[in-house]
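Entry for nicotinamide-adenine-dinucleotide complex. Fields follow.
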Amino acid sequence: METTAIDGRMFVDGQRSWGSSGSTFDAIDPATGQVFAAVALADHRDVDTAVAAARAAVDAGWAGLPPVRRVRILNRLAALLREQRAEFARLESLDVGKPLRQAEDDVAAAAGYFEFFAGVADKVFGSSIPLGKGFVDFTLREPLGVSAQIVPWNYPLRLASRGIAPALACGNAVVAKPAAEAGLSVVRLAELATEAGLPPGVFNVVTGGRETGAALTHHPGINHITFTGSVPTGIAIMKAAADNVVPVTLELGGKSPNIVFADADLERAAASSATTLMQNSAQTCTAPTRLLLESAAHDRFVDLLAQRIRSIRLGRGLDNPDMGPVVSERQMRRVLGFLKSGEKDGATAVTGGGRSEKPELARGYFIEPTLLDRVPRGSLLEQEEIFGPVLTVTSFESVDEAIAIANGTPYGLVAGIWTKDLGKALAVATAVKSGQVRVNAYSVEGSIGLPFGGYKRSGFGREQGVEALANYTQVKNVMINFG
Ligand code: NAD
């Protein structure tokens, strides 16, 4: 990709801008460690401008527009995204490091979010409540106003779209802040939305890191916050929201168990595990990185999975390997730190276990795809979100033990279950404390319609599906005495 082709400006009030200070930060290709673009660094003045533009757009009529017009704009945006899939995928692959094929899937998923929420934009129904003769009572679902969206670096385009599509569908305006590590596709998305007919100011993007994010989440002009990212940042954002008394939707990652019973189709379960490991180098909040294996299936499953993992080809995302680097040097150090702690705790590396030693990958942030066996219960490796290509294995003897291990972390986002006995699957599905349970498949076409969100420290609020509309509307009750 030509570096000169990449525009690092933010997008505020329908225009690209270098911001008030003109300061920039570097966008780094994680496959080479090379700078590929200068990105505008938004300060509190730029955040002020973006929030004011969003407010003005709401007041100028976006919130009151006939919903069918929002339907048309969101569908047009989805169509443009699909048309420009290759361009968006190349930018995402370069920025995040993920294989081009996976980035193309992300663009399709982003378009899918806009199509799904275009489909419900004119179906945000209220209800009527009987009060007896002479009275009529009904509810209206009204937009909140300005939604601040703090986006993480692992799936900038897909996760931005997950929150922004329902926000716009319900008549809110948005100020998004992607991560400094990767987020250029989000700025391009806002520009494309304007080309699709979105009025200026409805969708703004300020670029920068933690300070820009904090300026936005503390801003008195916002009415709502959506955040996806780490637990500590989620806590900081909740505190900012408390000061402003605005609602928050938090998705704080997971440590998803993948429970494999001995009667499962082990080949299929192992293939699924290897795929989720390669997917974005397992920098995925839903990644089922904690394998819980019934002892009778342990050896066979570990063999099957290790064979698959050993064949994973590492490389630069733009060259379409099986797996790319992790997003940044900081993230690589973080993951290597987890691997060190695993060694100390007595875990055994079946395959992988460190930074890739291939000379052609030496400048990038490549970690070998890793399978760690005998990971002790309660160890850091077993408890914390690693967010790198590392799967851990713990064995269990009974259904009750599997449930206890599955529920034994502070997280509760997704749980995978593999068994041919659907009675057993249901028993585990109802006992496990997580927002989603997936039985005998970890991904499915149409998942945008499935409500998604956390139990425990994985957060709260539900994204995707019609449930997401609750995050972006407030209910007004109107009572009329006409007697
Ligand atoms: P982070 O949670 O700090 O960053 C996510 C987003 O929040 C970024 O846009 C960042 O700029 C912004 N941010 C940071 N501090 C902020 C603040 N005080 N106020 C407002 N916005 C703020 O994540 P990280 O430090 O980049 O990654 C650390 C770990 O977080 C990862 O290893 C992973 O475990 C987890 N993570 C989870 C997800 C997920 O999808 N749930 C995504 C990214 C990271």
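NOTE: Residues 150-154, 177-180, 209-210, 213-214, 217, 228-230, 233, 236-237, 251-253, 285, 334, 385, 387 surround nicotinamide-adenine-dinucleotide (CB under 6 Å).
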